[in-house]
Amino acid sequence: MVEPTIFDLSSPGRGGGLVPDLDVPGEPLDNLIPGSCRRKEAAALPEVSEQALVRHFVRLSTLNHHVDKGFYPLGSCTMKYNPKVNEVAASLPGFASLHPLVPESLCQGSLGLIYDLERILCEITGMKAVCMQPAAGAQGELLGLLVIRAFHESRGRQPTKVLVPDTAHGTNPASVVLSGFEPQTVPSTSGGEIDLDGLAKVLDEDVAALMVTNPNTLGLFERQIVRVAEMVHDVGGKVYMDGANMNALMGIVRPGDLGMDAMHLNLHKTFSTPHGGGGPGSGPVAVVEDLEPFLPVPRIVKGDDGYRLEEDFPKSVGRLHTWYGNFLVMVKAYAYLRGMGPEGVREVSAAAILNANYAMRALEGTYDLPYQRVCQHEFVLSARRQKAKGVRALDIAKRLLDYGFHAPTMYFPLVVEEALMIEPTETESKETLDAFIETMEKIAEEVDTEPDAVKAAPTRTPIRRVDEAKAARQLDLRWKKT
């Protein structure tokens, strides 16, 4: 007897006998789909081979710059490498396939993960409670200020203004306005820290809060922060800390121990989720005990029968997110923190500070260094020396693209002329930092010898320099066939 082949070239159809005929059980397809929902003509789908499609997207991926491809020293944004194992954890079916309306009894593991993550973040920040709902750092800022407003209203107070240092993050004043307050600027000293005399002049009982970034956007730790908090508390205000720069503090300093009353964290910066690209973020808010009653609902409560979502918090500001926040970002943060442990978290901050100071000291002779202090996780250089020769910070940033590096943040903070804000992060090697330093020095040499080459940059990217002023005012967001 001849054994039947599984690859019979004499059989009709693709794959010969490998692919059997498939019978569709039940009613004919025409009876299952109403005529109004069926096409009258074939869809105009492109005929593209798999190989051509793969090559197209691989080519696009090589044009894009990302932290897996090269150094990304974007100051104030912590564009660090994130371990792929945390992505694997977030893709586990029990997490990735979880429906938001699943009964609590069927998602105890996920509720327990969020609950434990809240406890870990409380320990890192020195706060009493954490709300995981905010979907971004800016939304966390808004929530923190809404909680502070509700706190004041519960005591019969209606303060109208929030103080914002001139070295704070740029989103802070916008969050102040959105939360119903009026922002008022607090000046900084020549040393780059909050001016205590300037603060005293604007402090009164109409102040709801001070919104401080620490370390500030100059990469400097506010050495008088405890005194600053005392001054704000003396007039009945609260201190909100923008925690976007927590990559310099975690495991070393707990903001709650410094007198901070509320703060947000960026899980998509500090705690292992790729930052940028328009993907989901997470900006949980941590608060001290007297602000806890005002946090959004539902809150996760642990009881004898497990975890549940509790709505019964009468002082709550209400619901902030449609569900409970961007859950898979929380999974990555949880995997990151459990993998690192307390000592690992501390080492992250220490390495970030070391890398920043190494690069800063290497470049201080080539570019102006406005603040001669040990920096934290980032530092700010000034290209005013190069500007005097006709080349601006923008030109230097564009030239970096030609050498395969992403540009640092430019012209921010505003208190530094021709600012270049650089954050190496803890995940970059000394070899990478040395290559970046060498390139920055080379560009400075080109400013002297070939200034036109710098001003014409970039020349090796898919798109050359665009008219940025026009692009900002005349957005063209439509795709069109060329």
Walk me through the structure.
With 482 residues, the protein is of the alpha/beta class. The chain has 2 domains: 85-340, Aspartate Aminotransferase, domain 2; 349-472, Aspartate Aminotransferase, domain 1 (Alpha-Beta Complex). Helix content is 36%, strand content 11%. The chain is built from 15 helices and 12 strands. The chain has helices at residues 29-32, 50-63, 84-90, 93-96, 108-125, 137-154, 171-178, 196-202, 225-234, 327-363, 384-387, 393-402, 430-449, 451-455, 468-473; strands at residues 129-131, 161-165, 182-186, 207-213, 238-243, 262-265, 285-287, 299-303, 306-310, 379-382, 409-410, 419-422. The strands form 3 sheets. Strands 1-7-6-5-4-2-3 form a 7-stranded mixed β-sheet, sandwiched between helices. Strands 10-12-11 form a 3-stranded antiparallel β-sheet, covered by helices on one side. Strands 8-9 form a two-stranded antiparallel ribbon. Strand 2, helix 7 (171-178) and strand 3 (182-186) form a beta-alpha-beta unit. The radius of gyration is 27 Å and the shape is globular. Mean pLDDT is 92; it is low at 14-23.
In short:
With 482 residues, the chain is an alpha/beta fold. The chain contains 15 helices and 12 strands. A hairpin with an 8-residue loop joins strand 11 and strand 12.
CATH names the topology of the largest domain as Aspartate Aminotransferase, domain 2
**Gyration radius over CA:** 27 Å
Q: In which order are the strands of the major sheet placed?
A: 1-7-6-5-4-2-3
Strand content: 5-15%
Q: Quaternary status of these chains?
A: single chain
User: What's the overall average pLDDT, rounded?
Assistant: 92
Largest sheet: number of strands, sense, barrel closure:
7 strands, mixed
Helix content: 25-40%
CATH class of the largest domain: Alpha Beta
Number of domains: 2
Question: Order of SSEs, N→C?
Answer: HHHHHEHEHEHEHEEEEEHEHHEEHHH
Architecture (CATH level 2) name of the largest domain: 3-Layer(aba) Sandwich
Outline the low-pLDDT stretches. Answer: 14-23
Work out the helix count.
15
CATH superfamily of the largest domain: Type I PLP-dependent aspartate aminotransferase-like (Major domain)
Instruction: Give the overall form.
Output: globular
Would you report the number of β strands? 12
Helix vs. strand class: alpha/beta
> How widely separated are the two ends?
62 Å
